[in-house]
Amino acid sequence: MSGIALAKEQSVKRRKTKVDVPKLIGFIILLAVTVAMIMPLWFMISTSLKTTKEMFVYPPSFIPKYFAWENFKELFTNSEIKFGRQYMNSLIVGIATVIGTVFSSSFVAFGFARYRARGSNFFFILVLSTLMLPYPAIMIPQFLLFTKLGLHDSLLPLILPSFFASAYMIFLLKQFFSTLPNELYDAGRIDGCKEIRLYWTLTLPLSGPVLATVAIFSFLWSWNDLLTPVLYLDSQENFTLPIGMAAMLSSKFRIAPWNLMMAASLLSVLPVVALFAIAQKRFVEGIVLTGIK
Amino acid sequence: MKRSREERRESRNFYFFISPWLIGFVVFALFPVLASLYYSFTEFDIIHAPRFIGLDNYTELFKDDQFWNSIKVTLKYTFISVPLTLFLSLIFAMLINQKIPFRGLFRTAMYFPSMISGVSMALLWFWVFNPQAGLFNYILSFFGVDTINWFLDEKYAMWALIIMSFWGLGGGMLIFLAGLQGVPAHLLEAARLDGAGRLRTFWNVTFPLISPVFLFQLIIGLIESFQVFTQAYTITQGGPNYSTWFYVYNIYINAFKNFRYGYASAMAWILLIAVTIITFIIMKLSNRYVYYEGGSER
Q: What's the main place this protein lives (chain A) (predicted)?
């Protein structure tokens, strides 16, 4: 035993002293790529704090000479932009979407995970096949439907569909719910639980982590979505952030206000940063579990 | 066959719980798919009722230069961006999968940008590519490259979008990383004992084991890149000279700017068919590939 341990230790030592050239090159590549990935973010932050004058100075400065915090104030006070209003709209849509997706998808996934019926396999395959359904292929009739319902230029068309479960999330949650032991449910039934209580008081409390994953990803999708808001929203006070920022870009400012737009970009990234900071592990797990990015 | 009460109860519960999805499926998927098929055979401007015109939309599409251009543009983006992104994210995943210092930091830093998608990313990169004071030309200037008007020059606009797309490869990298960590260490050890080098070990052991992950990413990547919209809408508006006139952007313009809902629906259906066929082909090919690997192992 000790002989083997000793040999192992020696080989570890030997490996340590020898420089692994491919590994070193790998390290350098990774370092370079990481710097390249971070640099645009740095550029965004520094531009957001530059004055209009310094913005176009060439070569670009990496740290602003004067920190123009007023850019951020301008975003919220400039009545042409309506940034604060749009931020609220995006938050409302994001939070409502999370609530809708979490509850409806877990409800449906519970059905798929715990009950068998004739046709249950067929329906599950149907769920999976809708994963491949491109949104542009169905957006025109959806648009006409919501317009007919008088919901044009309101946030509802962005929110409502989330209350009818998302295929990705059903799949993810079903996988998790299927791992919960049957005995648990039998015990619950013996205690006189109705099926809906088995879902509500038994399953959901046990599913915190996976529900968090669902919440995070549905928030991100909603937060970043441009195409749906573009179809439905007309007036600037109803815009969500993405369409509001896109409108800023095409509006007729005399000089393109890149500092303001980078400030807007930065603020719109904040919830993403916050989510990432709070739930970094969850992100990684979510990706690993589902392949969702 | 008579079913027991228990079975009936179970089946009732099943339909009760899946009912939200069932309703959503009919209203937000099935009905729109069928409706857009119907609209694709009509002339429809939303003000007047749809007028049935048979295959006219489709025959017109085939003579429409903009239609063919949007396919060309989309395929160009897809065939360059998707394989390169896949390749790079796999390489980086393999590098991070080694025991190297700061790997957690590298992983985080490379993954984070992929969370910033949509307009924030588009705005940021539009500014990075700015010809007067952007970061990108400044860095290129160290390598002796002259100022490039990225989004104003039809030769470069597409390339700028492709370069942008690499910024999001962290998500794919993480998926590959997960796949790589699932490769059993004893198989790699066995390959090393057999005297296989790094490259051979990769091709004969690692890659076959992560090929399902690869396949999944390939399909998702293709479907996503067929649907590029945000960059075209935000940054280029399809230009310059239609060089970034993506397929979905074309659908959007035809439906919501030109109010030709029938014509756009025909395009939407062609997209649907293309996505279905491509998914089907890749699945079929992969079946053969997986079978071949399994057979040759013994």
A: membrane
Helix (H) or strand (E) segment spanning residue B230: helix B230-231
String of b and e for A17-49 (b: at least 16 CB within 10 Å)? eeeeeeeeebbeebeebbeebeebbebbbbbbb
Alpha-carbon span A113 to A195, nearest angstrom = 13
Architecture of domain B56-287: Orthogonal Bundle (1.10)
> Could you say which of A26, A136, A243 has the minimum Cβ distance to residue B95?
A26
Q: What is residue A108's predicted lDDT score, i.e. its pLDDT?
A: 97
Torsion angle in degrees (nearest 10) through CA of A62, A64, A69, A74: -80
Show the tokens assigned to B191: 């390959």
Residue that has been written with the tokens 């290129």 in this structure: B140
Chain A positions touching B35 (Cβ under 8 A) are 140-141, 144
Q: Are A284 and A213 in contact (CB under 8 A)?
A: no
Residues 209-268 of A with CB under 8 A from B: 220, 223-227, 230-231, 241-243, 245-246, 249-250, 258, 261-262, 264-265, 268
Residues from chain A that touch B271, judged by Cβ atoms under 8 A, are 134, 136-137
- The model's pTM: 0.90
CA distances from B205 to A23, B80, B200 (A): 20, 27, 8
Q: Cβ–Cβ of A140/B17 closer than 8 Å?
A: no
Of B24, B39, B95, nearest to A140 by CB-CB distance is: B39
Fold of A80-289: MetI-like fold (1.10.3720)
Q: Which residue among A111, A223, A230 sits closest to B17, beta carbon to beta carbon?
A: A111
Residue spans of the domains in chain B: they are 1-53, 56-287
Of A137, A243, A287, the CB nearest to B36: A137
Structure tokens at A197: 């209580």
Return d(Cα A212, Cα A279) in angstroms, integer.
9
Domain ranges of chain A: 21-67, 80-289
Q: What is the ipTM of this complex?
A: 0.88
Residues of B in contact with A108 (CB under 8 A): 17-18, 20-21
Q: What is the phi/psi pair of residue B42, to 5°? A: -125, 165
B281 in contact with chain A, both atoms CB, cutoff 8 A: no
- The pLDDT, as a whole number, for residue B1 is 53
Nearest to B230 by CA among B149, B120, B150, B154: B120
Average confidence (pLDDT) per 10 residues, chain A, 293 residues: 54 59 88 93 92 83 86 86 92 97 97 92 94 93 95 95 95 91 89 89 89 91 95 94 89 72 93 84 67 60
CB atoms within 10 A of CB B159: 15
In this predicted structure, the answer to whether residue B298 has a pLDDT above a threshold of 50 is no
Contact status, residue B176 vs residue B96, Cβ threshold 8 Å: no
pLDDT tens for residues B46-62? Answer: 888 899 998 999 999 99
B14, A117: Cβ pair inside 8 Å? yes
Look-up: residue for tokens 């429809």?
B44
B164 CB within 8 Å of a chain A CB: no
- DSSP-based three-state secondary structure for A287: helix
Question: What residues of chain A lie within 8 A of the CB of B171, using their CB?
Answer: 287, 293
